[in-house]
UniProtKB/TrEMBL annotation:
Coiled coil: none annotated. It comes from the Bacteria. GO terms for molecular function: hydrolase activity, acting on carbon-nitrogen (but not peptide) bonds, in linear amides. This is PIG-L family deacetylase.
């Protein structure tokens, strides 16, 4: 038991120090049959591969959240206001939420345990969003590993592109890059990068939590970004909206997050430039790993001098 607990807790941290560890883990995931894009992704729920009908109705709001509950923590009151206007809202979870409380990912725990956990997280999300009259048919999951999105940037980008082209939303919401959770930052980076690549501009990001701003912070603000000049909007959450947020969070029983209903909300238009430098600055993954991951994803080979100039520009703008 102790040996198994040690493996779950510490093996991922030890592997994090090895430059090529993500490739090793991905091979394990594939060999175990957990993640074989696009047909076999743990917890995946997408109309493109599940033969669900995608109706032609207008999509007003498309939200990309890393985990089931993030959209409530960061956008609960905002989504309530959209629902009051009868906006058609669609939610996309990029991960399956299968990691355990100790941070162990699906690649090093039992497959049946991961599957049950992923299904439970999705059901909790559906139940919470039903309070905003968002139907199950509008709630999707890409099925990437909780805590392991950094291994699937290209696949995730393909999914994001397909969703944008299928739903053609009026507005997109996504996490900001802030170093609170790796999956939040990777989701933000991939969604914004893909939007920029296909020319989609109406992208907004929300603040959630990080080391200096713990989850549940009422007066929430964004971390500084010298490339974003548009002011952030602080949402004035009413007592009714905060109570609703509490009820929605209580639906996520497995996460025990009802206590964080005090979480404030802040939104700003996303800047779609200098995305790699933003990621290097705030994401908790080691920088040497991030650079390798981003380079493989973008297929651009920037010289060290050009990269130094971008970093210098970032620092000078603070």
């Amino acid at each position: 038991m102790l040996k198994r607990l040690f493996t779950r807790r510490h093996l991922p941290k030890l592997l994090n120090l090895i430059p090529w560890s993500e490739q090793i883990i991905k091979k394990i995931e594939i060999k175990r049959g957990l993640y074989q894009y696009p047909d076999k992704m743990l917890g995946r729920k997408l109309p493109f591969y599940d033969n669900q009908d995608v109706n032609g109705e207008k999509t007003d709001v498309l939200v990309f959240a890393a985990h089931a509950d993030d959209e409530i923590l960061g956008l609960g009151a905002t989504l309530y206001r959209h629902s009051q206007k009868r906006d058609n809202i669609k939610i996309v979870y990029t991960t399956n939420g299968s990691a355990d409380w100790f941070g162990a990912q699906s690649w090093n725990i039992r497959a049946d345990t991961s599957k049950k956990r992923a299904e439970k997280r999705y059901r909790e999300g559906v139940k919470a969003l039903s309070l905003l009259n968002i139907p199950k048919e509008n709630i999707f999951c890409l099925g990437y590993p909780d805590g392991g999105t950094q291994r699937y940037l290209t696949n995730m980008s393909d999914d994001v592109k397909n969703l944008l082209q299928t739903f053609n939303p009026e507005k997109v919401y996504v996490h900001s890059v802030e170093g609170g959770h790796i999956d939040h930052d990777i989701t933000s980076f991939v969604v914004k990068y893909t939007c920029e690549k296909i020319g989609y501009r109406n992208v907004f990001e929300w603040a959630e939590y990080h080391r200096k701003q713990p989850i549940g912070t009422k007066e929430i603000i964004f971390l500084p970004n010298p490339f974003t000049t548009i002011d952030e909007t602080i949402i004035d959450i009413s007592e009714e909206e905060r109570n609703l947020k509490k009820i929605m969070l209580s639906c996520h029983i497995s996460q025990d997050i009802e206590q964080f209903y005090t979480q404030g909300e802040a939104i700003r238009r996303a800047n779609l430039s200098n995305l790699a430098i933003e990621l290097y600055t705030y994401c908790k993954l080691p920088k040497f790993k991030l650079k390798s991951i981003v380079k493989r994803f973008t297929l651009t080979d920037k010289s060290p001098s050009n990269e130094r100039e971008e970093v210098k520009e970032w620092k000078e703008n603070f």
